[in-house]
Design a protein that fits this description.
- One of its GO terms (molecular function) is polyprenyldihydroxybenzoate methyltransferase activity.
- Residues 41-131 form the Methyltransferase domain.
- This is Methyltransferase.
- InterPro entries: Methyltransf_25, SAM-dependent_MTases_sf.
- It comes from Advenella kashmirensis W13003.
- This protein is an alpha/beta fold.
- The chain has a single domain (2-143, 178-208), classed as 3-Layer(aba) Sandwich (Rossmann fold).
- The protein is built from six helices and ten strands, in the order H-H-E-H-E-H-E-E-H-E-E-E-E-H-E-E.
- The strands form two sheets. A seven-stranded mixed sheet has the order 3-2-1-4-5-10-9, with helices on both faces.
- Strand 2, helix 4 (69-76) and strand 3 form a beta-alpha-beta unit.
- The protein binds S-adenosylmethionine.
- S-adenosylmethionine (SAM) is lined by residues 1-2, 5, 45-47, 50-51, 65-68, 71, 89-91, 106-108, 111.
């Protein structure tokens, strides 16, 4: 996954140019910014900082982690001065020198294997203050707009075959969870939860139990 996104870094943002998704993206930018205003945010798998560039200027502080140096170089060019970019592993987060009352991850949940969800959530929640607000944003599967599913494994993970501009092809884990699946995954940890849907995207927002 990291190697695929490292190779894709320079063409990654093209995904945000799909014409049919522009109305949703505009709504979500405003929604996310309002949700994270004034917050101390831990962002997981920030990639090129596409979302960070919009919400961070009105957040209090942001630490944004990604595994790939190649995407972080692009993020560094566009994020506001209150953002600290950090190379790191979402499954093995470092000890931070600040506490966070919010977390955000865009288009990351879909890349977590079913078997790793509990491990990921345990690590993330351990870095946050009790009562912190957490937001995951990701893709809905929309025939004709989404890359088709090529395979499914026994655990229910789905995979796409994706091509990059250099001609290489990659088998990429990409899950499209239902609302029920998402709520079940976070229910042991969540106090208030809200599932939102746009035509092309879903978001899950919840507050961590105290
Ligand atoms: C689909 S991209 C999402 C980027 C960004 N959040 C966005 O919404 O545009 C997934 C990102 O996860 C990063 N990644 C892959 N494995 C990771 C890991 N174990 N820990 C942290 N980041 C990882 C990749 O480098 C890539 O930037």
């Amino acid at each position: 996954m990291k190697d695929y996104y490292a190779a894709r870094a320079n063409e990654y943002d093209n995904i945000y140019l799909k014409p049919e998704r522009q109305d949703d993206l505009q709504d979500i930018r405003a929604w996310l910014t309002a949700e994270l205003t004034g917050r101390k945010v831990l962002e997981i798998a920030c990639g090129t900082g596409y979302w960070t560039q919009f919400y961070a200027p009105s957040a209090q502080r942001v630490v944004a982690v990604d595994a790939a140096d190649e995407t972080l170089v692009i993020a560094a060019e566009r994020v506001s001065p209150n953002v600290q970019l950090l190379q790191g592993d979402a499954f093995d987060l470092p000890a931070f020198d600040m506490s966070f009352d919010a977390a955000f991850a865009g288009f990351w949940w879909s890349h977590i294997s079913r078997k790793d969800i509990v491990r990921f959530l345990t690590g993330l929640h351990g870095s946050l203050e009790p009562g912190a607000e957490i937001i995951f944003l990701d893709n809905r599967f929309v025939p004709g707009s989404s890359t088709p599913i090529a395979e499914q494994d026994a655990a229910g993970n789905t995979y796409q075959r994706r091509a990059l501009q250099d001609g290489s092809t990659h088998r990429v884990l990409k899950n499209f969870p239902t609302r029920e699946q998402l709520l079940a995954d976070i229910s042991p940890h969540a106090k208030l939860s809200q599932y939102c849907e746009w035509e092309y995207f879903w978001a899950l927002k919840y507050s961590l139990k105290r």
